[in-house]
Specification:
The protein is an all-alpha fold and about 170 residues long. Helix content is about 80%, strand content about 0%. It is built from 11 helices and no strands. Helix 5 packs antiparallel against helix 7. The radius of gyration is 21 Å and the shape is elongated. It starts with a helix and ends with a helix.
């Protein structure tokens, strides 16, 4: 993994080399290099290891996702703020299966740092509501469930939210 600033340097060098080739009558190669510079720019905003961890999670391969996330050594310096949010979000999802206390910490940090998609934010708040419900914090769980319901615009979490509200009535 390259540091986030090195990715911009690589993109800049590719653009400069592309412009040089265009002025030196190698137009096709120059255009190719300029188009190739889009890859490091894309990877600046979307970290490659986080993308690979998401792919592993889609296949329910938690060990593979942990392996890819382990490649990120210093998330505070190597990642942009939103990427740090997704780094913590992925750790929270993986730990929600085994250790709810640590998962809560990661989900709160992910919400604090910010997530790009409303659906991811809704899932994080839904998980935090579940943690609050298991700890008998009904008021906090209710507010988190309402926030998750507002963020769930496609109604993909409708059943889980309804199920949690039913369980909260029993508390």
């Amino acid at each position: 993994m390259f540091h986030k600033n090195i990715k911009f340097i690589i993109a800049g060098l590719l653009i400069v080399a592309g412009i040089y080739l265009i002025t030196d009558n190698y137009t096709g190669n120059g255009i190719f290099l300029i188009l190739l510079s889009a890859i490091p720019i894309f990877l600046y905003f979307k970290n490659e290891f986080i993308l690979l961890a998401f792919l592993k999670l889609r296949k329910q391969d938690f060990e593979g996702a942990k392996k890819w996330l382990a490649y990120i050594k210093n998330p505070e310096t190597a990642l942009v703020r939103k990427q740090q949010g997704y780094f913590n979000y992925l750790h929270g999802i993986m730990l929600s299966q085994t250790n709810i206390n640590q998962a809560e910490k990661y989900f709160k940090k992910a919400i604090e740092l910010g997530l790009s998609m409303d659906m991811d934010l809704a899932v994080a708040k839904l998980n935090l509501a579940g943690v609050a419900m298991t700890r008998r914090r009904k008021l906090e769980a209710t507010s988190l469930l309402n926030e998750a319901k507002k963020l769930d615009k496609q109604n993909m979490l409708k059943e889980q939210i309804a199920m949690m509200k039913e369980q909260m009535k029993k508390i």
